[in-house]
Amino acid sequence: MSTPTVARPATAATAELLLDAVSFGYAASLVVREVTLGLAAGEMVALIGPNGGGKSTLLRLAAGVLRPRAGGVWLGGHAVARLRRGEIARRIAVVPQDFSVQFAYTVREVVALGRMPHRSRLGLAHTGDRAAVERSLALTGMEALGERVFNELSGGERQRALLALAVAQDAGLVLLDEPTAHLDIKHQIEVLELLRRLNRERGLTVLAVLHDLNLAARYFPRLVLFNQRVIADGPPARVLDASLLERVYEIPVQVGILRGEEHLSVLPPGTAPTAIAVSGGTELAPKMAHVLAGGGSGELLMRALADAGIPFSAGPLNVGDSDYVLARRLAVICYAEPPFAPVSPQGLAAARDRMAEARSVVVCPAPLGPGNVELLDAALHALRAGTDVILLEPGEPARDASPLDIETIRERDFSGRGVAVYGELVAGGARRASSPLEVVRLLLDAPAPPANTTVADAS
After folding, report:
1. What are phi and psi of 57, to 5 degrees?
2. Can you name the residues that pair with 44 across neighbouring β-strands?
3. Confidence of residue 269 (pLDDT cuts 50, 70, 90)
4. Domain annotation for the chain: domains and CATH numbers
5. 3-state SS class at 33
6. Which of 57, 139, 168, 388 sits most deeply, having the most CB atoms within 10 A of its CB?
7. Residue 56 has what pLDDT?
8. Alpha helices in 252-369 (DSSP H)
9. Are 385 and 428 in contact (CB under 8 A)?
10. Is the per-residue pLDDT at 14 higher than 90?
11. What is the pTM of this model?
């Protein structure tokens, strides 16, 4: 098959991997339709979707094993179709769903296969290759199994050995086709914990096909719902939408945060998420809260509040912001601003009035531009007037004496004033919560007045 001539997209230079308008089919039937998907270096992305939807085919296209009928695949700014197999292997490691060897190779010998792309034409191993194999065995906890016969390993041990092979390959990107298939829950978690550690410690870029939506939501910050084309792409709180999953998987599901959990869970038909309770098991009446968010920082919190039955208002939020889309569905009141517009005087006044009426204001870790800092000022004014303010700052569970990490605020402060206002909020008695679940627990202290659901335009 001839390789289509495709112009290099502008985003190809900045993406670790880019599939640009890719289509592919077997015989006359297309199984991948005009897919555009990019991964930045260091991302962890899970590809989810129904069986037969083309996910494994998409991985083979990304790895250059298959050539698209239309569109192009770009790896670090280079067209995959123009790269030699050895060059691709030095950049991409592939962990297949099933892998076996014909002879009694040891684990160390299998892991050493990852060094083949780096060897000379004679295929001779060097000291550096042997050192890379030993480092890979150590990183994946396989040193003690180095002399075991690969085909005699358990399923979980095989997956760890294949990950060691991928690490030895020293590629920046690893593609995994159902790495948890046929594994019990213990070994599934071991494999995904290892993947996450390699991502954090070595900056490994990961694209993995997964069928377990709950594990995908727990371990992958970005999900791509795929069925021949990209249906949804974003954080779990946005992609794991019940109505969307029902349409794609053709079965009713419930999505929510379960008692004692911090992550979204997808439940089978006929099961409803359990409301979160305070310690002692007593369900208390909720109280009204106002949420300051933006840029996706409030998605998981808003779902947690809705699942716990806590009414809340939100905004102002720009129309089109991912938090606005969810707030419009879940909030009692959502104050709206035009797309990309700064916070208007009317929006700021509405937010001030709302915070004065709210029993609690929850400040999410949104980027801090000039408009958001004005909203922080309004939250500080409400705090000084007696309103409870909760600062949602993900991290280790907060303790009475645990200080807020100001450096994390500084990283997202584009106004020059955000850090100072956060300092005043903390000094004024604002409480810190390290997770949406902790916010819910803090809010389940006293009742709030009921309100009618509306969407208010602040512009």
Report:
1. -60, -40
2. 206
3. low
4. 13-240 (3.40.50.300), 289-457 (3.40.50)
5. strand
6. 168
7. 92
8. 299-307, 322-330, 345-357
9. no
10. no
11. 0.65
